[in-house]
Design a protein that fits this description.
Elements: H1 3-20, H2 26-36, H3 40-55, H4 57-67, H5 78-93, H6 98-112, H7 117-126
Helix pairs in contact: 1-3, 1-5, 2-3, 3-5, 4-5, 5-6, 5-7, 6-7
Amino acid sequence: MARRSRAREVALQALFQEDLNPRDSRDQLAPFLQTRLKDAQLREFAETLVLGVLRNQTELDALLEAKADNWSLSRMAATDRNVLRLGAYEIRYQDTPDRVVIDESIELAKRFGSAQSSQFVNGILDKLLPHDQ
C-alpha cells in the first residue's frame, strides 16, 4: 500500500470514530495517529486531513448533500459518509490531483464499505469536479 494511501486509511478511521462517537477528540488524535503511523510526515498528512475535514465539515456536508441526489448524509452508511467527506476535503482544499483523490476514495470505499460503496462514492465525488476534467 502506498504511503499516503495508508495515511488516508488512518484518517478515515479517525473520522469514522469521531462520527460514531462525537466528542472533541483532538487531544486523542495524536496518540491514535502515533500508534498507526510511524512516519512523522504521514502522521502530519493524516492529521491535516482529519482536522481539515472536522474544521470544514458543515460546508463539506452541505456540498455533498447537494450533489447526492435523493440522499441525506444521515441516511448514508457511516463509512461512505466519511470517505466522501475526506475526498471532498482533498478536492476542495489540498493540492492532490482530483483524479488521484477519487481513485484513493474509491479504494477506501472498496476496502471498508459495502459492495456498492465504491460506485456511490465515485458518482458523488465526480460531481464535485469541473466538467472539463
